[in-house]
Specification:
By secondary structure, the chain is an alpha+beta fold. It folds into 2 domains: 113 residues, Probable inorganic polyphosphate/atp-NAD kinase, domain 1 (Rossmann fold); 136 residues, Probable inorganic polyphosphate/atp-NAD kinase, domain 2 (Tumour Suppressor Smad4, Sandwich), CATH 2.60.200.30. The protein contains 7 helices and 17 strands. The strands form 3 sheets. The chain has a 6-stranded antiparallel beta sheet with strand order 7-6-17-14-9-10, with helices on one face. The protein is globular, with a radius of gyration of 20 Å. The termini are far apart. The mean pLDDT is 93.
C-alpha cells in the first residue's frame, strides 16, 4: 500500500540533509507521498515537497525525524495533535528518543510500511497558562519549566497540588517533567531517573534556597499549579522552547495530556540497558 510519510531534519547536520534527499527519492520512486516542513524542504533542495508547519501533521502515516532528540521534540510539536507514529533516526549524541541508526533508516521505514514494527508509548504533559491575557494551552513530551529570567535572581513559586496549597519555593526555578523528561533537564537538577514508559508527574526544584530540595513523584492525573509570587517575573519554556514570561499572580497548571507520543522501535528496549549504554556505565 502507499503511505504518506513526513520527514523532519536537523538543519545543521549535513548527513541528515543528504539522507533526507535519498529517502525522498526512494519513497517517491515507490509511489509514496512525501512531505517536509517548508524550511526543511528548502534546506534539502526539495522545495516541491514542502508544506507549511500547520499542514504538516494532518494525514501522515508516519513521521521520520533525522537528527537527535531535539529533532524528535520538534516532530512531536508538529505531529502530536494527530497521534502520528514517530521514527527517529539518530544523528545526535545520546539518542534516548531517536533509536534508529542512520544505516538502518531505510530498512526500518520498510518494516514500518509493511506493518512489521513495535512502538513505545510515552505520556505527555498538558500545561494551561493563566494570566492577564487569558488562557493558553501547551503540550510537552519532556518538561515544563518556570525559572528566573536573566535579569533576576531567585524567584518565588507557590505550588498547589490538586488545589491544595503545598509550599512556596524560593528557587531558580521548578521543572515539571514526564518520565521521558526525567533524563533531560530534570536530571541535571538532580531529579530521579524514571523508566520512560512509566506514567507520573515529576516536580523538581532548580537550586532551591531552602532545606527541602527533594523531587516529588506524583500521580499523572494530579494537577500541579505553579504561581509566580512577588515582583520578579519567571520565564516559561515548553520542551526547551521559550513561550513567554509570567508575572506576579500568573499560573501554569500541569497534568497528564490527552495526547501521547508513539515512538517506532525495531525491537523492545530495556530501560536500564538504554540508560547504561547512553551514560557509559560499566560494571566494576
Amino acid at each position: 500500500m502507499t503511505a504518506t510519510v513526513g520527514i523532519i531534519l536537523h538543519h545543521r547536520r549535513a548527513q541528515a540533509v543528504e539522507q533526507a534527499a535519498d529517502l525522498v527519492a526512494w519513497l517517491s520512486g515507490e509511489g509514496h507521498d512525501v512531505r517536509l516542513p517548508t524550511e526543511d524542504a528548502s534546506i534539502a533542495g526539495l522545495d516541491q515537497y514542502g508544506v507549511s508547519e500547520d499542514q504538516f501533521g494532518a494525514g501522515l502515516d508516519v513521521a521520520v525525524s533525522l537528527g537527535g532528540d531535539g529533532s524528535i521534540l520538534r516532530a512531536v510539536e508538529l505531529t502530536s495533535e494527530h497521534d502520528i507514529p514517530l521514527l527517529g533516526v539518530n544523528y545526535g549524541e545520546l539518542g534516548y528518543l531517536a533509536a534508529i541508526e542512520p544505516a538502518d533508516a531505510q530498512k526500518s521505514i520498510e518494516k514500518f510500511l509493511s506493518g512489521d514494527y513495535e512502538v513505545e508509548t510515552r505520556m505527555m504533559l498538558e500545561a494551561t497558562i493563566a494570566g492577564e491575557g487569558g488562557e493558553t494551552v501547551h503540550h510537552a513530551l519532556n518538561e515544563i519549566v518556570l525559572e528566573r529570567t536573566a535579569d533576576h535572581n531567585t524567584i518565588r513559586l507557590l505550588v498547589r497540588i490538586d488545589g491544595d496549597r503545598f509550599h512556596t519555593y524560593p528557587a531558580d526555578g521548578l521543572i515539571v517533567a514526564t518520565p521521558t523528561g526525567s533524563t533531560a533537564y530534570a536530571l541535571s537538577a538532580r531529579g530521579p531517573v524514571v523508566a520512560a514508559t512509566h506514567r507520573a508527574l515529576l516536580l523538581t526544584p532548580v537550586s532551591p534556597h531552602m532545606l527541602f530540595d527533594r523531587s516529588l513523584v506524583l500521580e499523572p492525573e494530579s494537577n500541579l499549579s505553579l504561581e509566580v509570587q512577588g515582583h520578579r517575573p519567571a520565564a516559561l519554556s515548553v520542551d526547551g522552547r521559550k513561550v513567554g514570561t509570567l508575572e506576579d499572580g500568573d499560573t501554569v497548571s500541569c497534568t497528564a495530556s490527552p495526547r501521547r507520543v508513539r515512538l517506532v522501535i525495531d525491537e523492545p528496549r530495556q530501560f536500564h540497558a538504554v540508560l547504561k549504554s547512553k551514560f557509559g556505565l560499566s560494571d566494576r
